[in-house]
Amino acid sequence: MTDQEIIERVNAGLEEEFEIPREKLVPDAKIYEELGLDSLDAVDMVVVLEQQFKIKIREDDGIQKIRTLADLYAFILQKVATRPEQ
Amino acid sequence: MKRTCVVIGGGISGMSTAILLAKQGFDVTLVERASRLAPLVRGFSRQGMHFETGFHHTGYLEQGEILDRAFKVMGLTGIESFPLGLGSDQRVVVDGGPTEGYPMSSGFVRLLDVLGDYFPQERSPLQNYLNSVEKTQNSSPYLALDASGPRETPYRDSTLAEVLDSLFTDNRLKSILASQVLYHGVPPAEVSFVFHAWVGAAALRSLRTIKGGGKSLVQAFERALEYAGVRVETGRGVNRVIVSPAGALAGVCLEDGQALETKICVSTVHPALLADLIPEGIFRPAYTNRLARLPETPRAAMVFGMIPTNSDVAPGNSWLFLEGHNPACWFGVEDRRGPGAMSVMISDPGGDNGMASLELAACSAPDVSKYELKEHLIQSYMQRLPSLYQRTQFLEVASPSTFARFTNSPFGSYYGPQHAVGVHPPQPRTRLPGFYLAGQAVVAPGIAGAVISACVAVDVMLGGDTVLKELRQC
Question: Which of A58, B119, B139, B177, by CA, is between 20 and 30 Å from B335?
């Protein structure tokens, strides 16, 4: 999967599972302030991403530091690049 | 004016939530679809005999432990509990061990004594295991209410299987200790040591039973509900939750069409049922999908009978038969004919006719017929305890679909969703303001899990630690 494909799948998940309109999904978008997600959505986000990319996300992975979509893309790209072989 | 609250589901967690909220000054209505409260824990009667379906014994009921205190805080009266005596240790029968099984004592010191004699080479690791379980139990704010100082959690990142494999070499001892996963329904390789220590290994700390069994426990709850002024509506299920056009919780609509207005509601039903209760557009698809896809604990199957009491059969006797040392098989794999793990329990039916009630319980594949289950369980019972078998008269069978109807659960499983490693259980708070969740899916299975989930939900709702403080001061 290319980086662009991974980003596309993150966006598709946000659109389908969190009902965020596609036009709002730009890298600079602030996840909490602009996309309307809140702390209650954080666990659902982890579950969706874990299932989509077959990765494990732990609390101390730095997910709390994510602020923008660009941060999220970088986080997932790094997770996918370092995930153990299936 | 009092704030109103509707609690959906009249099991242990729903009844506890209702009482705790009423004590905080809420005007509470408890709605239960079945014709009586807590059908699973209450059990049922046939031919004048009482049978247990959801309660035999529990941990955390010693004086000062969480259940003892929570029952006091809720005003439950008339509960006479007593520890299971020496003669009533469950016998765990494993491959390669004595045919009469190993006595599974409760109490860390006594268990170390008893099992240590059977496994002298493993005495030191066993002591280590029991110490770790005790420390972990004492790390929970609800299980160790008086604890002060640092809370230690050994093996914080390990599964139960990893801990057992790292400590023990004898498969029989590993199986005996791992068999306690049947108290929560998550296999050893998938459950964290911490969760297992809190729930599955609770019986290692203390184990008590209640005179009159689950029925008298439910009756104590019913008296407390009445005393607390909770309005109880049985035989009335909730059809859907009513949300105002502005997106605020407005009430619940019952199946008979009546609407109950409320701005606060606590649901204790299986989380997979929420998608049908909540109007579309309130929860995000990610949340509803997550709840619908929570992995489920094993499906329940039971056979009920009666047996004359005598020197070798007395209420309180119980056996657990484990087939093989592979815990995955204990949960009943689809293509297996016999039960992988089967417990045989003798209960006090409450009568005086020299008879005891007998319950066989095992895990089942979802689609096995009552007839097949009866064959499997009785066959296995006959092979394991032939002399008891000859004196037993069988009366009833319950398959997973029986349990699904009985407990209003979509799957008829023992404990609802699994609390496995990597699974994210739902939290008490939801996206719909005023709508909260409690129950074994939120905190943990069992009477203690259900009661603690009620305490947690009420504290989350009130935004503090009101209930926790009350439990500490009790």
Answer: B177
Residue B429's identity, in one-letter code, is R
Q: Give me the domain span that covers residue B285.
A: 4-37+215-294+418-473
Q: What is the pLDDT of residues B1-35, one digit of tens each?
A: 789 999 999 999 999 999 999 999 999 999 999 99
What's the CATH number where B91 sits? 3.90.660
> Which of chain B's residues have a Cβ under 8 Å away from the Cβ of A47?
286, 290, 424
Q: Which residues touch B128 (CB under 8 Å, ≥6 apart)?
A: B167
Domain tally, chain A: 1
Kindly compute the dihedral angle of the four CA atoms of residues B10, B43, B372, B393, in this order, to the nearest 10 degrees. Answer: -170
A43/B424 CB distance under 8 A: yes
Packed helices B171-178 and B160-167: angle between N→C axes, nearest 10 degrees = 150
Q: Are B209 and B57 in contact (CB under 8 A)?
A: yes
- The per-residue b/e assignment along B297-311, b for 16 or more CB within 10 angstroms, e otherwise, is bbbbbbbbbbbebee
Q: Is B275 on the interface with A (CB under 8 A)?
A: no
Any B CB within 8 A of A41 CB: yes
Whether residue B194 sits in one domain with residue B108: yes
**pTM higher than 0.90:** yes
Give the Cβ contact number of residue B202 at 10 Å: 28
Please name the member of B287, B422, B430 whose beta carbon is closest to the beta carbon of A56: B422
